[in-house]
Amino acid sequence: MTRVGIGYDIHRLSISRRLVLGGVEIPASAGLEGHSDADVLLHAAMDALLGAAALGDIGAHFPPDDDRFRGVSSLDLLARVRDLLARAGYRVVNLDCMVVAEAPAIGPYIPLMQQRIAGVLGIDALAIGIKATTNEGLGPEGRNEAISAQAVALVETAE
To answer: Of 81, 105, 140, 141, which has the fewest Cβ atoms less than 10 A away?
Structure first.
């Protein structure tokens, strides 16, 4: 059996934070506000994976008021999501992700993001799609107030 899930996340930009997307620190004048490392790409991906397996969302598993997750790497949270899926009898087939930001350009970092995500999920890096777009000056992303991400995940029952 195969199942599909979708995920979305958005975080405000903050000059006092580092920017982490897809498990990769990217040089930028501002990072993202959040309880963990605020990696919107991975947060959207985790919600897509959890949704595909009908396991709730990241807020239910990693509450933003829980100090155990303060500053934690979202790659570590992704590993926990992978384990939740495995216990429920699912394995990840692929992820397709979109980052919406006016800046910085993330293209040069995409191969490393794919490798890091694939390494945690135990799948081929070619099964991880990551794209980026701007919001053409519209909305919080367009005004350089935030970065958002969307993701679609395909999982199947483990054999």
So the answer is: 105
